[in-house]
Structure formats: structure tokens, C-alpha cells
Amino acid sequence: MLTILLALILAFGGVVLLGPLYISLLQRLGYGKQIRIDGPEGHFSKAGTPTMGGMLLIVVVMFLAMAMRIEDVSTLTPMLVLVGVGILGAIDDFVNSQTGIGVRGRFKLIWQTAVALLAAFYIQRHFDVKAFYVPLIGRVDVPPILVVLVVAFVIVGASNAVNLTDGLDGLAAGVLIFSFVAYLLIALAFVPGLKESRPNLAVFCALIIGALMGFLWFNVHPAQLFMGDSGALALGATLAVVATITGQLVLLGVIGVVFVAVTISVILQVGSYRLRGKRIFRMAPLQHHLELIGWAEEKITVRFWIVSALAGLLGLSLFLASVNGL
């Protein structure tokens, strides 16, 4: 536990200390966020705010992970996914800062899918995953090829879900903190299927949590730094990998319920408009709809944090109930 606390403090301190220098560098380079003209009017004042904050988190987490020598079979894959998808996000942030458009969605999906398939294949083969553990039900056997496909799908889905949620100051970072806290605690416990705890994976989660807390120092409203795709895409994919390695991928739907709700709001909006020519929400994702019906940005953020904290507690309760055979 002392190692976990140390990791959290070091990551937090690293991001807070380097943050002002990093923000100044991004400003000099002109890496500012371009705001969508069809977005909420209240966001126009955020134009030019430095983005690509996710790269600062990734650099701090990876440096500390190597310094603390926590690389093992349970941390190698999430580390590689964090870096691999982070590079894609950084490219997208750079292009957006220059053109206001970003990388084409098709190219991002191909890159995400390639990384996800490689990660899913390695996890399935190395940990010999042949089943998913469903809360209160137990083991559900699945063919290896289906395991790979499902895990890859969830990695890509989680990556994009966090990116969709990253629309308000402090929103995605705060929700991610609660999600990673839940999986940190799960990684320390007995894991069905793996038959052992994953202390190094817990330390890795602590590094991410600390870095996210440090990022929030600059990202709370009014934000001085945006996470960008370099953070949102990478951290979403990494969360899904962590969930898979702990053997609790199914619980991600509970623990990450905010991300699920935001994604569903977009799917419903697009589906309704294409099928009926009508919109369900004033604007998607969900947080922008809430803005347009009068909720203050800070209120939406904190309320989503509250829901995420409750979802994390529910997920942990379901996990403990499953472990105890209740």
C-alpha cells in the first residue's frame, strides 16, 4: 500500500510541477484547441486553450513506471496501449490545432483497431483467457477467438467513449479517476480466473490516478489545459485493458456507466436523425444536451463525478459478491 501511495503522490507532483512549463510550451508552439462552430456557444471562449495535455500524463506515468520497475506481464500490455493510442491522439491533437478538423475518423478507427487486436490477442494467449466473469452469475466460457474479438471491441469502444465524454472542463478526468480507483482495488484482491492479485497493476493504476489528479489541477473550470485525444483515447483504451487483465471486463459496463451513457446518447441521436429525421437531444453527447437545457458546466461535471463514484462502489460490491459466491 505504501508503494501505491508513493506512486500516486509522485505522479500527482510530477504533473503539477511540469504543468506550467508544458502549458507555456504548448502556447509558444500554438497547440490550441479549435472549437466546433456547431457546439454550445459558451465554449467559444475556450478557443485557443492549450490541448494535448494527455501527453504530459503519459510521459509522467511511463517515466515513473520505468523508474519504479513495475513492468511485468500484467502491466506491459496497458503500458504499450497507453503509448500506442496516445501517439494516435497526439497526432490528432496536432492536426486539430492547425486545421480545426483533426485526423479522419476512418484512420483513427483503423489505428485503434490494430492496437486493440494486438493487445487482445496477447492477453488471451498469455493469460489463457477462455471465459468472462459475469457479476452474480460466474464464469461464462467463450471460444478464444471470440474473447479476442470482444476484448478488442471493448478497447476501441472505451477509447472512443472517454473521448466523447471529454467535452467539459474536468469531466473526463474526474470520471476516469473513479474508474481507475475501482480497478486498482480489484487488482489488489483475489481475481477469479487469474487466481492471484496484481500488485504491479495496482501501482500502475495509482500512477494514472495521481497523474489525472495533477491534470485536474489545471483542467478544472476554467481550464488552462485540455486533455485532448492524446489523453482521452489512450486512457479509455488503457482502462479497458486493465479491466480485462483483472478478469472483470464485464464490470466495466457498471464502473464506466458515465462513459456508456454518453456513448448511448450519441448512438440514439445519430440513429434517430437518420431513421426519422428528428433529434432526441438538443445536442449530443449527453453533457452538451444538459448544457443547452440550462445546467451549468460545473454542475454537470460534479454530478457526473458523483454518478461515477457511486458506479465504482456498485462495481466493487458486485465484484466482492461474486468472489464470495453470493
Task: Describe it.
By secondary structure, the protein is an all-alpha fold. The chain has one domain (2-127, 142-249). Helices cover 70% and strands 2% of the residues. It contains twelve helices and two strands, in the order ααααββαααααααα. It has helices at 2-29, 53-67, 76-99, 105-127, 144-165, 171-188, 199-219, 228-245, 252-255, 257-276, 286-292, 297-323, and strands at residues 131-134, 138-141. A two-stranded antiparallel sheet has the order 1-2. A hairpin with a 3-residue loop joins strand 1 (131-134) and strand 2. It is globular, with a radius of gyration of 19 Å.
Summed up:
70% of the residues lie in helices and 2% in strands. The chain is globular.
What is the strand and helix layout of this fold?
Layout: H1 2-29, H2 53-67, H3 76-99, H4 105-127, E1 131-134, E2 138-141, H5 144-165, H6 171-188, H7 199-219, H8 228-245, H9 252-255, H10 257-276, H11 286-292, H12 297-323
Antiparallel strand pairs: 1-2
Helix pairs in contact: 1-2, 1-7, 2-3, 2-7, 2-8, 3-4, 3-8, 4-5, 4-8, 5-8, 5-10, 6-7, 6-8, 6-12
Describe the structure using short key phrases:
about 325 residues; mainly alpha; two-stranded antiparallel ribbon; 2 strands; about 70% helix; globular
Measured between the Cα atoms of the first and last residue, the distance is: 28 Å
Number of domains: 1
Please give the share of residues in helix: 55-70%
Strand line-up across the major sheet:
1-2
